[in-house]
Amino acid sequence: MAHRHASRPTRSSAPTPPLALAGTLLQRTLRFAEPPEAVLARTLSGANRVGQRLRHALADALYGALRALPQLHWRWQRLQGGTPAPLDVAALRDDAPACQALMALAWPIDAAPWLAQADATSAEVVAEWQARAQAVSLDDAPEAVRLGLPEWLVPRLQAQVGGELPLLAAALRAPAPVDLRVNLLKARPAQAREALQQALGGTVSTTPYAPHGLRLPGRTRLSGVPAYEQGWVEVQDEGSQLIVALVGARRGETVVDFCAGAGGKTLALGAEMRDSGRLYAFDTVARRLLALPARLARAGLTNVVTMQLRDEQDERLERLAGKVDRVLVDAPCTGLGTVRRHPELPWRHDPASVAQHAALQQRIVAAAARLVRPGGSLVYATCSLLREENEDVAAAFTAHHPDFVVQPAAERLAAARVPQAQALVQGPYLRLWPHRHGCDGFFAAVWQRRG
Ligand SMILES: C[S@@+](CC[C@H](N)C(=O)[O-])C[C@H]1O[C@@H](n2cnc3c(N)ncnc32)[C@H](O)[C@@H]1O
């Protein structure tokens, strides 16, 4: 085998464009200024436009590299000789040759032909790295490397799932299915399912827990599909749908979605309310709320009022203090329950960012609670797996708010006709795990304000 390419590439032996592009994609993603989809769109534009098949291959390699970053890094270091050092993401993103090598190792086997077509030398380098890496075992690698997780995360997750940690880590590495929520304002679940099966030609299953959820087999493009274009279905993970079920919004009520973002849960809440009453969608980031009007129109919702908050203390909130039936706080969090869809997240966060999120979450839930009327309810939710952002935040809120009483999530889920509600809770809280429930990881606590 020619070792010319297998050694650490240098400037004088610069790799050919597709692999150089691949390395740039990984370097840019690891700066965490924008998500991988945005990095792909920005990088593969203008002079760097590539054909669709190569573009897909580059995207698959990028997601594959993010999903297996410590393993690839370990193997790459072993191939360099010497003792592997712990993965240092800040150093890696400045190391172009290393990023190219990791992307070569992550290049999808079935996409080798597209690479060979685009550039024979890149294809040769990929084949060579991959062949050499096969001989490198992970058996003597540290646990975090074998699990594919950052070191700081391992003890935190271990404390919660114990011996299930390898299953959880594997579930986090696997790509997520596409879940849909049927919009009851426009279609019945069976009707939507049949329409989708006809349009997509594959089997569409129902989700095991969310009452109005459908699951598509693998990656599917929905644009142009009539049931989607007409607002019969919305893309929404089953876990998100279960958070909405927990809120239990009803016709004619006043409901606040305090951290509405692009409105995924707002749309579901509005449908639960059958487009009656008043639904407020707040967020501090105007850009996120911008997507909402078009989505509301497609979903057939007219009962939603959106407002950009300055922060959670915005004085305009005073008008609603003590008046709202149900408040949902879908709090900003590390998102570590959504790693299947966002494999960059474990590398973006660290214990300091977890602590920062927890502090913000405490402030937001306390501010949002002021809106709840006596007898009304509050739901605090995150898509994080970490106790610091979940049970700890909920416990601190309960300790400081004696007028709020924790409600068992299982009861609320059962009332919303969620099957096997007991399997979805830990103590009084909703706790969804990718390896147990097949959806993103979610946490939610529910309180009722004393009347
Ligand atoms: C988990 S995301 C919401 C996702 C959204 N609910 C959905 O279902 O698509 C959290 C949101 O909280 C917003 N946020 C951050 N700080 C906030 C604050 N102080 N008050 C209200 N919203 C805030 C973020 O901009 C972000 O859109």
Automatic annotation (TrEMBL):
Entry keyword tRNA-binding: no
Enzyme class at the top of the EC tree: transferase
Pfam families linked to this entry: Methyltr_RsmB-F (PF01189), RsmF-B_ferredox (PF22458)
Residue numbers binding S-adenosyl-L-methionine: D283, D311, D330
SUPFAM superfamilies documented for this protein: S-adenosyl-L-methionine-dependent methyltransferases
Record keywords, A-Z: Methyltransferase, RNA-binding, S-adenosyl-L-methionine, Transferase
Active site: C383 (nucleophile)
Limits of the SAM-dependent MTase RsmB/NOP-type domain: 168-450
GO terms for biological process, alphabetical: RNA methylation
GO molecular function: RNA binding; RNA methyltransferase activity
Entry EC number(s): 2.1.1.-
Keyword Cell membrane carried by entry: no
Transmembrane domains' residue ranges: none
Family: Belongs to the class I-like SAM-binding methyltransferase superfamily. RsmB/NOP family.
Protein name: Ribosomal RNA small subunit methyltransferase F
Organism: Tepidimonas aquatica
